[in-house]
Write a structure and sequence with these properties.
The chain contains 1 helix and no strands. With 103 residues, the chain is mostly loops. It has one domain.
């Protein structure tokens, strides 16, 4: 999934409850670090390793939806246009792994 382009998972820290993988749905929406669908800040997180860029906190902590959460819900349930088909929206080309190609 495109999550893997943004989030680094240390396999040594995976817990047994995370071992069952589900098929990812490629929605082609930009990855949303601030989505309400992320775990809370204190759940399942460790600090970045020494020498790596500082970790960015993910998710929402005020029980609200992110702007992209709303866009995805409108697309899925209300028949709204896909994010990439809306005016003035940029959706980058992706590499063979589904990660955005940086120009």
């Amino acid at each position: 999934s495109d999550r893997d382009c943004y989030v680094k998972i240390d396999p040594k820290l995976e817990r047994h409850s995370f071992l069952s993988k589900v098929n990812a749905i490629d929605s082609s929406f930009p990855y949303d670090l601030y989505s309400a669908m992320h775990y809370r800040r204190s759940d399942y997180i460790t600090h970045a390793h020494e020498g790596e860029a500082d970790a960015v906190y993910m998710g929402r902590y005020d029980d609200t939806l992110s702007a992209m959460d709303v866009v995805k819900l409108e697309y899925r349930y209300c028949g709204a246009k896909h994010y990439c088909d809306r005016p003035n929206k940029y959706c980058p080309d992706r590499d063979k792994n589904g990660c955005p190609i940086k120009s």
